[in-house]
Amino acid sequence: MSVKPIRLFGDPVLRTPAEPVRDFDKELRQLVKDLTDTMIDAPGAGLAAPQLGVGLRVFTYYVDDVLGHLVNPTLDLSDEQETGDEGCLSIPGLAFPTPRAVRAVAKGFNMHGEPITVEGTHLLARCVQHETDHLDGIIFIDRMDPEQRKAAMKAIREAEWFGDPVPQVKVSPHRTLGKAI
């Protein structure tokens, strides 16, 4: 098992757009393993490479008992939106209502460079959007209206972990439909 520390809100790597993967090699396969092991250990519904301090366009997901990963994703989103509680392993213990497209189609590659498509609604669509946002340097609170975002920032600043570059103790994330995204 290769569980790595998860970067917390405030770490600049979370605001830096990730670079496309160019080499589908042993290092990429190890990164996918590290992401998967860390996500499952957390537990979470998804985890993006920047959350482990790696600036590459890769994320893993585990939604409705389906485990997968996506490299260099592009998204096609439905116009229909829904607002639901969303959490993040980089903002442990907190969740906030966040608008997202109800349906998402994500296209990209697996760790071997083979093209894949991930299609989903509701939680899977939310997860894919959330993790792709991480690859673009966007955190889910950026999707909230200004008043809600202000309240979320207050809760983050008051959180026990705020200001730590890496948590020293394991913090149980708020569970959104069973897991933090």
Automatic annotation (TrEMBL):
PANTHER family according to UniProt: PEPTIDE DEFORMYLASE, PEPTIDE DEFORMYLASE, MITOCHONDRIAL
GO MF terms, alphabetically ordered: peptide deformylase activity
Catalytic site: E131
Catalysed conversion reaction: N-terminal N-formyl-L-methionyl-[peptide] + H2O = N-terminal L-methionyl-[peptide] + formate
Entry's family note: Belongs to the polypeptide deformylase family.
Pfam families: Pep_deformylase
Stored NCBIfam families: pept_deformyl (TIGR00079), PRK00150.1-3 (NF001159)
The record's free-text note on cofactor binding: Binds 1 Fe(2+) ion.
Names of the cofactor(s): Fe(2+)
Binding site for Fe cation: C88, H130, H134
EC number(s) stated in the UniProt entry for this protein: 3.5.1.88
Function: Removes the formyl group from the N-terminal Met of newly synthesized proteins. Requires at least a dipeptide for an efficient rate of reaction. N-terminal L-methionine is a prerequisite for activity but the enzyme has broad specificity at other positions.
Organism: Actinomadura gamaensis
Keywords: Hydrolase, Iron, Metal-binding, Protein biosynthesis
Enzyme class: hydrolase
Listed InterPro entries: Peptide_deformylase, Peptide_deformylase_sf
Protein name in the entry: Peptide deformylase
